[in-house]
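The methods section describes the discrete structure representation at length, but only in general terms. The central task, working out the structure tokens from the amino acid sequence alone, is never made concrete. Nothing conveys this as quickly as seeing an actual entry. For illustration, here is how one protein appears when written out as sequence plus structure tokens:
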Amino acid sequence: MALHWFSPPVPVRTEGGGSTRKVSNAEAAAEELLKWTNHGLQWNLAMHVCVAVIADEMEPEECRKAFLAAAKEEGLVLRSSD
């Protein structure tokens, strides 16, 4: 299975560990979303978009946008990634 890459990566603070992860594909975005304890509106949208991208139903850039919005909602974005 090929990864669904997007650019630039979205740098986020990981929950619990306080380390940094640069998320650059839909699979990694979904993996990171599953670790989050809060599942807000943007989280739900991002998860749906990740699944659609992995199923080749949407473009990876849409995943980046949705993941970035979810990370901002959770306060996990480390710097401006727009």
The mean pLDDT is 92. The radius of gyration is 11 Å. The longest strand covers residues 5-13. The CA atoms of residues 41 and 70 lie 8 Å apart.
